[in-house]
Amino acid sequence: MRRLRGYPGGRSSGSGLRSNGATVSNRAQFGTVVTPSPELLARLTELLANRGSVRDAAFALSKWERVVSQIERGYRGTLDHYTNDVSLRSAIDVVSPQLVDELRTEVASILAPLDQRFLTVTSPLESQGWTISESPLCNRVPHVVSAEFNQNLQDLEALWAAS
Question: Residue 40 — φ and ψ, nearest 5°?
Fold first, then answer.
């Protein structure tokens, strides 16, 4: 397997996924799930819907938890799927400044443990100007990815090198 410039890589995890050698647990513990207040869900839903991202904040928050869990187990989707998956988290970052302080603090407390887990199992995207999302947090790639995802990154690297 070719090593990507700027990315550790190459070792197969035995499940069709590739690893950079980082230890990835089968499933990290989530800890205490914080139930968002009705006020947060209503306002966040309104902001996300106005942005055209998603029509339900509860879905966006639970989807981010599922995406992080998938990444912890080894991301099996393509780069396109991953970009779509992290776009929900990015959308929350984009609209959060429009929340009143109390709701912004609440959403941050819900997302902080998920974001920490995400940071643990991903590495910064090292590109030549290409980004995955509007959110700096989401411009990262999983440590363990499918062969197709890895090929997607290699194809992009070739495009970056040619430009």
Answer: -65, -45
- How far, in Å, CA of 21 to CA of 143, rounded? 8
Residue 100 has pLDDT above 60, yes or no: yes
33-87 confidence digits (pLDDT tens)? 568 999 999 999 999 999 988 889 999 999 999 999 999 999 999 999 998 899 8
Q: Count of CB atoms within 10 A of residue 160's CB?
A: 15
Give the long-range contacts of residues 69-72, CB within 8 A, separation 24 or more: 69/27, 69/28, 71/118, 71/121, 71/122, 71/142, 71/144, 72/24, 72/25, 72/26, 72/27, 72/28, 72/117, 72/121
The rounded Cα 152 to chain-centroid distance in angstroms is 17
Residue-level pLDDT at 33: 55
Report the distance separating Cα 39 and Cα 27, nearest Å: 31
